[in-house]
Amino acid sequence: MKKFMCLLLASTICIAPNIGTAPVNVMAAENSKSSAFQNLDERVTKMLQSAASGGQVYGYHNIKDTNLNGRSIESSIIENSELLTVGGTTLANTLGQDQTLVSGSYEHEFSETTSTTNTSGWTFGYGFNATLNILMVSATHNFSVDYNMSTSNTIEKTEKRKLTVPEQNIFVPAGKTYRVNYVFEKLTISGRNELNADLYGDAIYYYNNQPMSPQLLYSALNFATDKQGFERVTRDTVEGNDRFGIRAKGIGQFKTEYGTELYIEVIDITNSRNPVKVETRSVPVEFKTISVDTRVAK
């Protein structure tokens, strides 16, 4: 086991209207789950209510824009690498001269599974099904994980895939018997991510039953006696008051298993009691996704 030191390459948000809602099994499990998780909008309301002072009464608030973002917590990333011999063939040169023999093509089906859990204590609603994608990269491998921020359940995504290895030309000396093994590298990576929800908007307070001028969430948080874990945030992509918002922070946990590379090992087995490795080569393979299944993990 070794630490897998990652750098955050990018984090994006995929937001779709309710037309593209979460799978039925995900929604059913979420509705039946009793937990301490709270919709983020409820926390906004409590924070704003605690910010009312001097005869003011909280009325309502408007969320005008949102942004989900995240990053890896590098110290938490652990990687396990496993090499699996998934097939092979034997090539025998019974002639009195050297030959180049063909190993033949090879197909192998396997599954890649990723599970993510939003452990932030809050869920993201606002009429959207929001998935936060965090892409990470190391010196040798890239991978990404998706968090469904509208649920507190552990979501498991399994992709059934197939790889195809083209024919390989193997040089076999006269009188030699070679074994060609197909070795598949599989990685299991687990760790934690920082998850952020940035909210931009304003609130309306009433005084003597009359609405007051809108107050930014950013400003109201400064007066709140119950901040509900929010902190103020400023973005540089827009100008004016739209730059100012509030941020909820949380943690997510993930585990992903996926295949990375296929090797060919050529072993001289002419003397079965004393096999000798002749060559190891990395070969280009074609990956094809057969099916994708998303479910709530048991």
TrEMBL record:
- Keyword Signal assigned: yes
Query: What are the UniProt keywords, alphabetically?
Result: Signal
- Domain of life, per lineage: Bacteria
Q: Which SUPFAM superfamilies match?
A: Aerolisin/ETX pore-forming domain
InterPro entries noted in UniProt: Aerolysin-like
Signal peptide range equals: 1-28
* The protein's name in its UniProt record: Uncharacterized protein
Q: Which organism is it from?
A: Brevibacillus laterosporus (Bacillus laterosporus)
